[in-house]
Design a protein that fits this description.
Layout: E1 22-32, E2 38-48, E3 61-64, E4 71-81, H1 82-95, E5 110-111, E6 116-118, E7 126-127, E8 144-151, H2 162-176, E9 189-195, E10 199-207, E11 215-223, E12 232-240, E13 243-250, E14 256-261, E15 267-274, E16 278-287, E17 291-296, E18 299-307, E19 316-323, E20 327-332, H3 340-352, H4 354-360, E21 361-365, H5 368-380, E22 385-389, H6 395-401, E23 411-417, H7 418-421, H8 433-453, E24 460-465, E25 474-478, E26 481-485, E27 496-501, H9 505-517, E28 522-524, H10 525-533
Parallel strand pairs: 2-5, 2-9, 22-23, 23-24
Antiparallel strand pairs: 1-2, 1-4, 3-4, 6-8, 7-8, 8-9, 10-11, 11-14, 12-13, 12-15, 15-16, 17-20, 18-19, 21-27, 22-25, 24-28, 25-26, 26-27
Helix pairs in contact: 3-4, 6-8, 8-10
Length: 537
């Protein structure tokens, strides 16, 4: 069968082996004792600069994937000539063959890697300490250029049972420092890294004197032993969301230089190129600070909230710092820069990071304390307003959640349900229906009044949705952001459930506000108490 990958333009014209006569090849694979077959898990080639001393011994390890497992994971690494390592990697790109020729005992049945996705034109892929873009770069100390081979078909790894796969990922995390759990796309991947040619490192920083508008970029080039910088070119671009514009271009005459920017620019990007080897380093965007706007919250006291025992957690006392209203501080002049490019860069970084993913979507597996902390942390972000929507919000939830809102300027609201409160049992009470609701409401009113008197929470407004609640789901809104809860707060975290940050909270917030403001859809706490006292339903 015709394979178009065999016609991929060779990377030999772009890979520079000059100054790198050797390479380190590292392989991880799994072996099945019954079929005697081996499958690639991860491969990496690192060209080694000649100025780096040799290593006497390279690491190896192996681990069986469970007592009753037929699979064992192996890791080995070898030193090879740069040319042979490059030829081996090219064969892996073209045919999927990965059996290591450097191994003393050849692998009997190394199954070829299928459905390969290669990135052949890699001079444009220049990376410097960007593990968020490619997590395996975290262990690399030098700036690199890399070629990456992934697979679009992970069926070979799927031969493992779930417990064996988990054991494999745990071993890779422990031994290689790579967390393949959240990035399964990198299983069965292979990577070829070239150290930054000519240079050991490049460092840059912006320079703007206090006594004038003069702005410049300071560049420090550290050449490798025996290398010269005469053929290097440095370019500085103004970077905007609509495109880039060249500001200056020069050939540095010394390793350390100052390149002046004679215009008032928003963001800049820097490129270091070589006349023969092409692009070496690309950094940025960087911004000259025109002003700094800070909102500070002065901690002025502490709330101590006793919490009763809950299934999965003993009784405890929460100590919550209390702050005064935010005080804006402005350093410098001019308007705050609203750059679409900068916003997009921040969003891209957040989406690429595991921490950002964790903020947007959290799954709780019965860990009550972890779930409580997540909700309390969300409420603590409210500086201007917080709204809790939960049809089953009762007096027991007042001290559990609302004291987490520590900004004294924050407006606190709760939207619960008259119908929902009629269904929650109260220990020692046999009341049902509206009588049970009346007990709940009186406890709610008393708990809010007492907690406000004890300065455990801000002034709080509560409304109840009438009849069948107009809103079924549970939400928390804080300063324009919104989260969807998979269960009511009174059981949140006790079983498997989700907490999701909504990507477009505006529509949800508008719907909730319409229910809050509509007297036919919701009623105030005291008004509802008076209705029930008068025999209302």
């Amino acid at each position: 069968m015709h394979d178009p990958r065999t016609e991929i333009e060779s990377t030999s014209t772009t890979v520079s082996l000059v100054g790198c006569s050797r390479a380190v090849v590292s392989l991880t694979w799994v072996f099945n004792r019954t079929t005697k077959s081996s499958y690639l898990v991860h491969a990496q080639v690192n060209l080694v600069p000649d100025e780096v001393p040799r290593v006497d011994r390279y690491p190896t390890w192996d681990q069986r994937l469970g007592r009753d497992s037929e699979w064992t994971v192996y890791f080995e690494s070898w030193e090879a000539t740069a040319q042979s390592a490059y030829s081996w990697y090219e064969a892996l790109v073209a045919q999927g063959t990965w059996a290591p020729p450097w191994r003393q005992s050849p692998l009997s049945s190394a199954i070829a890697l299928e459905a390969r996705l290669n990135e052949p034109k890699w001079p444009g892929v220049v990376t410097i300490h960007k593990p968020a873009a490619l997590p395996i770069l975290g262990a690399l100390e030098a700036a690199t250029r890399g070629n990456h081979l992934l697979t679009e078909d992970g069926s070979q790894i799927d031969l493992l049972r779930q417990d064996e796969r988990s054991k494999l990922i745990g071993s890779l995390q422990q031994q290689l420092g790579i967390a393949f759990g959240p990035i399964p796309e990198l299983l069965q991947s292979a990577h070829f890294f070239e150290p930054l040619p000519v240079l050991r490192s490049v460092s840059t920083r912006l320079d703007a004197p206090d006594d004038g508008p003069d702005r410049a970029v300071l560049i420090d080039l550290v050449p490798r032993r025996g290398s010269r910088i005469e053929k290097l070119i440095v370019e500085i671009f103004e970077e905007r969301s609509t495109g880039n514009r060249l500001l200056c271009r020069t050939q540095p005459r010394a390793p350390f230089s100052r390149m002046q920017v004679r215009e008032d620019v928003e963001q800049i990007a820097i490129k270091v190129m070589h006349e023969e080897l092409g692009l070496l380093v690309e950094e940025g965007p960087y911004s000259f600070l025109r002003s700094i706007h800070i909102e500070m919250n002065l901690i002025s006291g502490e709330r101590r909230v006793p919490l009763p025992a809950r299934k999965g957690r003993p009784s405890t006392t929460r100590r919550i710092p209390v702050g005064e209203s935010d005080r804006p501080i402005v350093v410098g002049g001019g308007d705050v820069v609203n750059s679409a490019a900068q916003v997009l860069q921040t969003v891209q970084h957040r989406l690429a990071s595991g921490a950002g993913a964790r903020e947007r979507q959290m799954w709780f597996r019965g860990d009550v304390m972890e779930a409580e902390k997540a909700i309390q942390n969300i409420l603590a972000t409210a500086k201007r307003s917080a709204l809790v929507v939960d049809p089953y919000f009762s007096a027991d939830d007042v001290k559990m959640w609302l004291p987490s809102i520590t900004s004294q300027a924050a407006e606190v609201r709760v939207l619960t349900s008259s119908k929902g409160l009629q269904q929650i049992a109260i220990t020692g009470e046999s009341a049902k229906g509206t009588a049970l609701e009346a007990l709940h409401l009186e406890r709610l009113r008393s708990e809010i009044v007492t907690s406000q008197r004890d300065r455990l929470l801000n002034p709080t407004t509560l409304r109840l949705m009438r009849g069948k609640p107009a809103i079924h789901d549970r939400f928390i809104l804080a300063d324009g952001r919104a989260w969807l809860l998979g269960s009511s707060l009174n059981e949140f975290g006790s079983r498997g459930t989700m907490l999701v940050a909504l990507p477009a909270p505006g529509e949800v917030s508008a719907e909730i506000e319409s229910v809050w403001k509509n007297p036919d859809a919701s009623v105030g706490l005291m008004e509802r108490i008076q209705e029930l006292a008068g025999g209302g339903k």
